[in-house]
């Protein structure tokens, strides 16, 4: 049994869709990093909208965009791959164009722009995962998905840094950033389109139990709603706690966010490869345990003396990021392993629905819990995460009698349980 964890970059790029697709991902992420963190600021500064109205329009756009996911899933199951990824980028070009065309004070056009940007942002993860699942298999696919996430985080981080440096230019700079973002999306869509990855719709024999709908994965989908809260902890929960409860310098929040990005970029692939010795479901359960432990660590850190609390929170944030990395490296990979080929798109779309919903509600839940103190915030997150972990860990036997067993039978033993071989 191969146990090496060495990753060869050339093989990883090939498994991720090839060099052109990797460049497309980097360009797309760079453009997203230029605008997405500052979309609220664009509405307030450039369009002169109030912060609550702008935030509401953005939230409504994100939630409404989830409605497109069933259609995306069906499109993927008809064999489309790179076309759907390119479409997710092109629809964001339309969103940026609407944003640039929005006159001052017009909330409706801004909401429409947020909707199209949201559609692209929601459709992209499922489409990207389906494309990678078409060109790579087994644990190589898991590493390729991890590499895509690392590359995307690097692009987002660089884009955000460039945008921050340009903010001194005021409204003109924000408009220029939006225009550059649109061009980046357009270039990324063209590169993705040129890859021409497509698969024939999977044929299933008559009477095959795998010919039914996508596996239900009820516990996995419900648990994922809780798991994804970890993605908003560095951006929402920790700045809120550090500034409003601990009265620490905002620089701590910035340092934690930068550290989170660097750790994800550098460790996502190595950690995913290292944990390939375990089953994907076991790794996902481990992620829940690590995240719950980090939430308890935050609770303990916030009870320390003022001079020690902020550094302790920063230290615990590293544990939380490790949990996030473990989660991100196993969750989508588990869905791609469970779903039969002919319903992979619908399974990924349902998973993205749970992810998008969790990301949409987590800011409101986190801020509401934080208003009742650290114990309410971190205690509730710990309890909910442990419940989600237990549900995910115990769902395995329930799925073996349905579509999940057919999916696992169609997946080789090496693909499910063995660590990455030297080919990576």
What does it look like?
Helix 2 (19-35) runs parallel beside helix 8 (138-166), helix 6 (82-101) runs antiparallel to helix 7 (107-135) and helix 15 (344-370) runs antiparallel to helix 16 (374-399). The chain folds into two domains: 9-195, MFS general substrate transporter like domains (Growth Hormone, Chain: A), CATH 1.20.1250.20; 210-411, Growth Hormone, Chain: A, CATH 1.20.1250.20. It has 18 helices and no strands. The protein is mainly alpha-helical and 424 residues long.
Keywords:
Growth Hormone, Chain: A; 2 domains; 79% helix; disordered N terminus; mainly alpha
What's the structural blueprint in terms of helices and strands?
Elements: H1 9-15, H2 19-35, H3 39-46, H4 51-65, H5 69-77, H6 82-101, H7 107-135, H8 138-166, H9 170-195, H10 218-227, H11 229-245, H12 250-274, H13 280-302, H14 306-338, H15 344-370, H16 374-399, H17 403-409, H18 413-417
Structure, briefly:
It holds the Pfam family MFS_1. The protein is an all-alpha fold and 424 residues long.
Structural class: mainly alpha
Mean pLDDT: 87
How many DSSP helices? 18
CATH topology of the largest domain: Growth Hormone, Chain: A
Q: Return Rg in Å.
A: 21 Å
């Amino acid at each position: 049994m191969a146990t090496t964890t060495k990753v060869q970059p050339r093989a990883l790029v090939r498994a991720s869709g090839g060099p052109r697709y990797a460049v497309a991902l980097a360009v797309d992420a760079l453009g997203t990093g230029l605008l997405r963190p500052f979309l609220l600021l664009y509405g307030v500064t450039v369009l002169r909208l109030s912060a609550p109205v702008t935030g509401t329009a953005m939230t409504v756009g994100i939630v409404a965009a989830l409605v497109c996911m069933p259609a995306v899933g069906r499109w993927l199951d008809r064999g489309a791959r790179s076309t759907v990824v390119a479409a997710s980028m092109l629809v964001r070009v339309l969103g940026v164009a609407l944003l640039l065309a929005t006159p001052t004070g017009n909330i409706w056009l801004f909401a429409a722009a947020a909707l199209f940007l949201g559609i692209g942002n929601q459709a992209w993860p499922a489409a990207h995962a389906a494309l990678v699942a078409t060109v790579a298999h087994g644990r190589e696919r898991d590493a390729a998905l991890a590499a895509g996430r690392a590359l995307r985080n690097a692009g987002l981080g660089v884009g955000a840094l460039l945008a921050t440096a340009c903010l001194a230019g005021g409204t003109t700079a924000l408009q220029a950033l939006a225009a550059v973002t649109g061009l980046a999306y357009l270039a990324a869509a063209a590169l993705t389109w040129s890859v021409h990855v497509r698969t024939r719709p999977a044929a299933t024999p008559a009477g095959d139990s795998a010919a039914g709908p996508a596996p239900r994965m009820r516990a996995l989908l419900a648990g994922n709603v809780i798991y994804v809260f970890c993605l908003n902890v560095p951006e929402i929960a920790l700045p809120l706690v550090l500034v409003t409860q601990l009265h620490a310098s905002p620089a701590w929040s910035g340092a934690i966010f930068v550290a989170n990005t660097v750790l994800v970029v550098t460790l996502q692939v190595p950690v995913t490869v290292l944990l390939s010795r375990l089953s994907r479901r076991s790794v996902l359960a481990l992620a829940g345990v690590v995240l719950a432990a980090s939430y308890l660590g935050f609770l303990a850190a916030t009870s320390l003396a003022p001079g020690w609390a902020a550094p302790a929170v920063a230290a615990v944030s590293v544990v939380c990021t490790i949990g996030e990395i473990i989660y991100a490296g196993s969750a989508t990979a588990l869905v791609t392993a469970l779903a039969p080929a002919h319903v992979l798109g619908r399974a990924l779309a349902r998973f993205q629905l749970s992810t998008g919903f969790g990301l949409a509600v987590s800011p409101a839940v986190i801020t509401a819990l934080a208003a009742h103190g650290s114990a309410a915030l971190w205690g509730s997150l710990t309890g909910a995460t442990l419940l989600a972990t237990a549900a995910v860990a115990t769902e395995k036997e329930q799925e073996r009698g349905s579509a999940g067993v057919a999916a696992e039978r169609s997946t080789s033993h090496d693909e499910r349980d063995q660590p990455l071989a030297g080919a990576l």
